[in-house]
Structures are given as structure tokens and as C-alpha cells.
Design brief:
Blueprint: H1 3-23, H2 29-36, H3 40-46, H4 50-62, H5 64-74, H6 78-95, H7 97-103, H8 111-133, H9 146-159, H10 162-175, H11 191-199
Helix pairs in contact: 1-2, 1-4, 4-8, 5-6, 5-8, 6-7, 6-8, 6-9, 6-10, 7-9
């Protein structure tokens, strides 16, 4: 890649991160090009589809899940580790409207982005199992239950301020403590059911 082309690509990635972060993933690509100081044709020369921009931006941001997971698994208190991981995910959603859309699966995910999300689910499975084995997390909580939470938090974040999602999340987490558990009316979605729902989003 020529030096000028490489500079244009870097400017486009930086601009897209800002625009998507401020306005969400459905922000106009023309705004991305304008903020980068290039033409829309230059944008499409580098990124043939919107999802290509997503792949250039969000896997790096989702790498933060690796750090959150390591901290959660290192915490001597499995419940505290689980709660901190969930809080960390929602804080990422709240800090970046584009990432909020990614985690709520409002758009089909590109390949690298999908792999980053899958890695986050693998982390969560280990954290959930650890908290269950310690008798702190209700035994009927499943990893798939985190997805409706992220959908709900996504909407709350879009419609309200920081204090609202923090309060709602605190109420949700208290309901997941083993001591608060009561029989649920329906089982959790299976991984196949969840994949079908998310694939259609």
C-alpha cells in the first residue's frame, strides 16, 4: 500500500471509530469520509462494505474483554469476579454507541468481529461455572442468559443516562445470587436457539 493510501486508511479508521462511537453503527458513511477528509469513493476503495469498517475497529476494542476476564478469574471471590465482568461489559456498551450496537447484535457481524464476540462468550462460560461451583451464582443461570441482558442494557443506554443502567444492572445482579433464586417459569434458551435468534438480527 502506498504511503498516501495507508494514511487515508488510518484516517478513515480513526474517523469511523469516532463517528460510530458517537452515533452508532448506522451512522452515515459520508460522515465518516467527511471527518477523515477524504471522498466517499476513497472510503469504498478501502472498505467495500460497512462491516469491513466494523472489522477494522471493534475487534481491538473487544480485546478489552480478555483483560476483564483475566481480572474476573483472578479475583479470589468468584461472585465478585462474575459481577465485575458483567459490569465491565455493560460499561463498554455505555462508553461507545457503536460497541453498544455490536454487543446488542443490531447489525450482522463481520468474521473477525464475530470471532471476538465468541471469545468473550468462552470467557463468560468459565466465569459463570466458577461462580456456580462456589455456590454464589444461581444454578439455573446459563451463558445464553447474558444476551437478553445486553439487549435490554443496550436500549436503556440509548434512552437514558449512566445512573439508570447502573441501577438496573445492580437489581439484575442481585437477582442472580444463589440465595435469591426461585424457580423460573421457562428454561434458558439453548445455544442453538440463541444462535438462530442472533443470526436473524
Amino acid at each position: 500500500m502506498r504511503a498516501d493510501a495507508a494514511r487515508n486508511r488510518e484516517k478513515l479508521v480513526a474517523a469511523a471509530a469516532q463517528v460510530f462511537g458517537d452515533r452508532g453503527l448506522d451512522a452515515p458513511l459520508e460522515e465518516v469520509a467527511r471527518r477523515a477528509g477524504v471522498s466517499i469513493g476513497t472510503l469504498y476503495n478501502h472498505f467495500h462494505a460497512r462491516q469491513d469498517l466494523f472489522d477494522a475497529i471493534f475487534p481491538v476494542r473487544l480485546a478489552e474483554l480478555d483483560r476483564l476476564a483475566a481480572a474476573a478469574l483472578d479475583d479470589p471471590d468468584p461472585w465478585a469476579g462474575f459481577a465485575a465482568f458483567v459490569e465491565g461489559i455493560v460499561a463498554l456498551q455505555a462508553a461507545d454507541r457503536g460497541l453498544n450496537d455490536v454487543l446488542a447484535r443490531r447489525f450482522p457481524l463481520a468474521s473477525e468481529l464475530s470471532e471476538a464476540c465468541d471469545r468473550g462468550f468462552a470467557h463468560l462460560a468459565r466465569i459463570v461455572e466458577r461462580a456456580k461451583e462456589a455456590g454464589q451464582l444461581r444454578g439455573d443461570f446459563e451463558v445464553t442468559d447474558i444476551v437478553p441482558l445486553m439487549w435490554a442494557m443496550s436500549q436503556i443506554i440509548r434512552e437514558s443516562g449512566d445512573a439508570v443502567w447502573r441501577r438496573f444492572l445492580g437489581l439484575f445482579l442481585d437477582g442472580l445470587r444463589a440465595g435469591a433464586a426461585r424457580p423460573l417459569p421457562v428454561p434458558a434458551l439453548s445455544p442453538d436457539q440463541m444462535a438462530a435468534i442472533m443470526g436473524g438480527g
